[in-house]
Specification:
The protein has 9 helices and 15 strands. With 311 residues, it is an alpha/beta fold. It has a single domain, classed as Aldolase class I (TIM Barrel), CATH 3.20.20.70. The strands form 4 sheets. A 7-stranded parallel beta sheet has the order 3-15-14-9-8-7-6. It has a 4-stranded antiparallel beta sheet with strand order 4-5-13-10. It has a two-stranded antiparallel ribbon with strand order 1-2. The chain binds 3,4-dihydroxybenzoic acid. This is Dihydroorotate dehydrogenase.
Length: 311
């Protein structure tokens, strides 16, 4: 049997599949379910300093080719997730988990990251620079000046392994500019991609989610080509110490295979996990293993980043 084992920032994971932040990770019950599934690890719902109720419902809708959401950062607040992770560290010291975070302001982000730095947390931290759903707040990662400033400030005091969640970029010059910024910092990973922001889905004559008159982040089959392009663009441009987590449009083992071929070291499942539940991890893993057997690959290193070009 081939191995789908992987490593991020020197930590080992038995499987390269995990949830995408926002899906099946709001409560301890959901996190425990992912933990007990075939997933290699989990990431928590992006936490803010204080708990938030988020936007009014309906705020997430599965649709035939994917999903649309404008959740508005509902979460239980940093302490809920951090306390759970600290407890888990005692009970399962051999496993590593991801904590996702963002402040409602740069000051908040620093308060949160200082708390994590000063805590006993030994896992991986993901700073979310790409939430598209809070009315009046632009995505940080589309503002390169602010992104560079925040990362400069963060790395002055944050010494634990840190990565960032990115929105999709759509222009080669933006890939170049973003990579030039990220390469200045001791980031351990970038996670590509968050949802494609502010799409609109209509049924009959009406939108399907309430917030922002129906505008919301798009996930699922719609986004795979954009996700693969972002994974590969950053794989080509980033220094080797910055690993890539691939997220977007993973329905099957073939989709996970393509993310790894583009350079991903870990692959996250969002919309499909929402539609299918945690059984998706076992199914997708089996499908990935079957592809690896058919191609004679024993582990992910045999094909990671080895995307073929024409000519
Ligand atoms: C939310 C959506 C995102 O895509 C994200 O990165 C963080 C939060 C949300 O609406 O809750």
């Amino acid at each position: 049997m081939p191995s789908t084992q992987t490593q991020i920032a020197g930590f080992s994971f038995d499987n390269c599949l995990m949830n995408a932040a926002g899906v099946h990770c709001m409560t301890i019950a959901e996190l425990d379910e992912v933990k007990g599934s075939a997933a290699g690890t989990f990431v928590t719902k992006t936490a803010t300093l204080e708990a938030r109720a988020g936007n009014p419902e309906p705020r997430y809708q599965d649709v035939p080719l994917g999903s649309i959401n404008s959740m508005g950062l509902p979460n239980q607040g940093l302490d809920y997730y951090l306390d759970y992770l600290l407890d888990l560290q005692e009970k399962e010291p051999n496993r590593t988990f991801f904590l996702s975070l963002v402040g409602m302001s740069p000051e908040d982000t620093h308060t949160i990251l200082h708390k994590v730095e000063e805590s006993g947390f030994k896992g991986l931290t993901e700073l979310n620079l790409s939430c598209p759903n809070v009315p009046g707040k632009p995505q940080i990662a589309y503002d390169f000046e602010t992104t560079e400033r925040i990362l400069t400030e963060v790395f002055a005091y944050f010494k634990k392994p840190l990565g960032i969640k990115l929105p999709p970029y759509f222009d080669i010059v933006h890939f170049d500019q973003a990579a030039a910024i990220f390469n200045q910092f001791p980031l351990r990973f970038v996670n590509c991609i968050n949802s494609i922001g502010n799409g609109l889905y209509i049924e009959d004559e009406t939108v399907v989610i309430r917030p922002k008159n129906g505008f919301g982040g798009i996930g699922g089959q719609y986004v795979k080509p954009t996700a693969l392009a972002n994974v590969h663009a950053f794989y080509q441009r980033l220094k080797p110490e910055i690993q890539i987590i691939g997220t977007g449009g993973v329905l099957t083992g073939r989709d996970a295979f393509e993310h790894i071929l583009c350079g991903a070291s870990m692959v996250q499942v969002g919309t499909t996990l929402h539609k299918e539940g945690v059984a998706a991890f076992e199914r997708i893993t089996k499908e990935l293993e079957e592809i690896m057997v058919a191609k004679g690959y024993q582990n992910l290193d045999d094909f990671r980043g080895k995307l073929g070009y024409i000519g």
